[in-house]
Structures are given as C-alpha cells and as structure tokens.
Design goal:
six-stranded parallel sheet; 372 residues; single chain; seven-stranded parallel sheet; Rossmann fold; alpha/beta; 14 helices
Length: 372
C-alpha cells in the first residue's frame, strides 16, 4: 500500500514524534510510506515549554518528512491536502491529541479523495486542559475520518460520545524501544547524586497540572526518611507552587530536582536509578511514560484514572491507587516496597513487552484499513 503519514516528525521532539517514527519504521517494512509534517506545530501561546525541536542528546529517529502544514495559516491546509493528493496514497494516517489541531487536520482530511482512506490514531478526544473550542473543533475533525485507532477505553468512550457511529479498532500503545538499555543501578544513583540505601521513587516527564505532582509531593510528606523522590522533566508553566510545597516538607532533602527537559541519552539514568515510577495523575487517557518505564522493566504505581489500569495491572506490572489522593498514594508506595520481592514485576513486564510491538500495531492498522 501507499501510505501518507501526516503528523509530528523530526525535527520536532517529544513522545508524539517518537511514536510516529516507531510506527513509520514498522509500516515501511512492507509498504511505501511518505511522511508529511508541520512547518509550525504550535503557536507559542499553546506551548509553554522551552522548545518544540530536537536538542543535543536526543536520540531522534530522523524520518525524511515534507514540512508543509502551518496550523495557524489556513492557506497551508489546502497546500498540504494538495501535496498528499498528488502522491495519491491508499491511506492517510494522522495522530490527534489536542483540539487545536481540529481545523487544520480536519480540512486536510476533508479534501482527500474517496480512494484515500483517512485513519487517525486518537491519543485524546477531549483535551486535558479545557478550551471553549474543544467540542466544535474535535467534532469537525472526527467527521472527516473513515476510521480510528484508540488505545484506551476512556478514549473509546469519548469518541463514541462525540461520534456515536464510528468505525475503529482498539490497540494498546506499543512499548517504546528507541532508548539505550538500562544502566547499573548504583552507578546511575551515584551519577544523579542519590544517597545510598534509599527507596527511590521517580516522577518523570513534562510537569503539567493534570499529572498530579502536587499530590505526589503531599504524599511524600507522609513517608519516612528512607524514601527518596526524583522529579525529572520540563515544566509547562511555573514550578513555583511545587517548590513552595517542597520547601514546607520535613524530608525535603530527600527530593532530587531535575526540572528541565531530559534528553534521550540521559533518560536511562533516571529509570535505572529508581525502584518504581509514580504516575499520580488527576486525569488521563493513556501515558507515554508508562511505555518508557516498561522499556526499562520498571514497575509503576498509578492512580486509577483514564486508561492507565488497562496496561498497569494491579500486583502484576505495578500497583493501582483507587483515586488521586495523597494519603492513599503514600499507602500504596509503602505497600509496594513491602511486596516487591514477592511479585515478579519484571517478569510480568517482559511478557507485556512481547505483546505490545510496533509491528503488531502496523499490521492491525493495515488490516483495519482494508476492511473499510
């Protein structure tokens, strides 16, 4: 098949670009694939981070893509559609995670000829941060698609809420595999300046309100001095309120702050140094951090929101906290260290990694396209 893939590719950075590159590589094994990407992805107003682009240390897969779509210039919507139509693909694949993309991606999809099936991989249907334009923009976008791929029950429900008659398949997010391998634990802890003989917790990834770092900091107050918390990731917005929380803790010296974007070549250090990854999310669909953590065989403690439970099985690949609550999270952290030698977390994660491959997602997507 000829497959056009319109989404975020190199030189853009982050989990979306990593996902697209991994799926592209799986698809190109048996099909002709051409990547199209953005000239402008977000205006600065919607991107509070430092940069949208690959930096030194990022292990980026350099996919050869055509930069053509400017999300804030409607003229490029038509230009992008024209470029894709000229190539005459059997399938157009896109990825959707934020309602801001509804008009641009929706118009491109609308302009596709009947012989091109439009399939979108939905990360989110309803945005984590609410905007007045969410519903109309997303409804317009969904209407232009022939089919969808969802990766969690929560996204499935949101899709059917806005477009009750939808053709879709459900496939769990594959495991990221582009990072270097795990580093010796003691060596990693020494490099990061973590004291010896600590029970090490890791909060990793972009710091945004819905990810519940404030809940984790509150729960850390309830833990003994034998625990150590690593907070690693770039802040979207201000870190001031979190810093004030930390300053009020009696055990604040047991928190290591790495509040900046973590380049790919440094990622293994953090997951190698930790005993468990913590996802204290207040809301979620799925989380890319799950699949990074499992790449490094690291179990996860996560709140029971969105689709997190679908991959993180309680007392199998991690522990589930019944709600985003500091007291309950602290209890689960203590429970994890009490039972971690009784459960084969790493063995269970290894089993899951075999099931969630990029090749399997690619084959499922093609079979779905052929059925439309």
């Amino acid at each position: 098949m000829k497959i056009a893939y319109l989404s975020t590719f190199y030189p853009f950075r982050g989990g979306i670009a990593q996902f697209n590159a991994s799926l592209y590589r799986a698809l190109e094994k048996e099909h002709e694939v051409k990547a199209f990407t953005f000239t402008t992805q977000y205006p600065k107003l919607l991107f509070p981070g430092k940069t949208q682009y690959v930096q030194q240390g990022d292990k980026a897969d350099i996919i050869n893509s055509l930069p053509v779509l400017n999300t804030i210039n409607p003229l490029t919507y038509f230009k992008t559609a024209h470029e894709i139509k000229q190539w005459n693909p059997d399938i157009l694949i896109m990825k959707y995670w934020m309602s801001f993309f509804g008009p641009s991606l929706g118009l491109v999809a609308k302009k596709m000829p009947e012989n091109t099936k439009v399939i979108t991989i939905l990360d989110n249907v309803i945005s984590h941060e609410k905007h007045f334009f969410d519903k109309p923009f997303t409804s317009f976008f969904l209407k232009q698609n022939d089919g969808f791929v969802v990766m969690s029950e929560s996204v499935e429900k949101d899709l059917l809420l806005l477009k009750p008659v939808s053709k879709y398949i459900k496939h769990l997010h594959p495991i990221y595999n582009h990072f270097d391998q795990i580093t010796d634990k003691l060596k990693a802890q020494k490099i990061l300046g973590i004291p010896e003989n600590k029970k090490v917790l890791l909060f990793f990834g972009f710091i945004r309100d819905y990810k519940g770092l404030d809940i984790l900091i509150d729960s850390f107050r309830k833990l003994s001095p034998e625990y150590y918390l690593i907070i690693a990731g770039e802040v979207y917005g201000s870190f001031t309120r979190y810093q004030e929380q930390i300053n009020s803790l009696p055990n604040k010296e047991n928190i290591g702050l790495f509040v900046d974007y973590i380049p790919d070549d440094k990622v293994p250090l953090f997951f190698s140094a930790a005993d468990v990854c913590i996802l204290p999310y207040k809301s979620a669909t799925q989380s890319g951090i799950t699949y990074i953590s499992f790449h490094f065989d690291l179990p996860i403690i996560a709140t029971d929101v969105g689709g997190l439970r679908e991959t993180i099985s309680d007392k199998d690949t991690g522990l589930i906290v019944e709600q985003p609550d500091a007291e309950k999270l602290a209890e689960k952290i203590i429970e994890f260290f009490a039972i971690k030698d009784q459960i084969s977390f790493k063995k269970n994660i290894a089993r899951l990694k075999n099931e969630l491959s990029w090749d399997h997602l690619a084959k499922s997507l093609i079979q779905f396209a052929e059925s439309l």
